Amino acid sequence: LGITVYLFNHSAEEQWDKGELTRLTSVTDDDGEHRKVVLALEDGVLRGQYNGIEREFAAGMIPASFWHPDTVTQTVLLDQVKGRTRNIQVVDKGVEQITVKGRKIDARHYSMTGQIKRELWYGPDGQLDLLRFPGKDGSEITMKLR
Known about the structure:
six-stranded antiparallel β-sheet; about 150 residues; five-stranded antiparallel β-sheet; mainly beta; globular; 11 strands; single chain; about 0% helix
């Protein structure tokens, strides 16, 4: 017997050129609420739409996809699900040992608070290896590199 209590399906594509986000497209089904973000860099500004509503953001924004190592140096991230900015604070919690792909590695742990709450661990190569955050229902969601 399988019963779906909550469904979140998200797909996003980012295009970068010389370290700058040039295009972002995301489609999300958040438990029946459909969201679509389409942005492109035009004349030094990220322009586009969120669910048909015009949006404009400063060039150089980093999306809240967390893969980019500079995520932890930002105070504002681009929410690619809802097409808006999110204010954050990030604290470096130091190096911790975590298990990735069956082996232990030393990873730098960052704690993000503000309008986005995440615990992030980046490996020595700068890759995001572990991500943890609270679900809407208070549960803990963990995403780990396999």
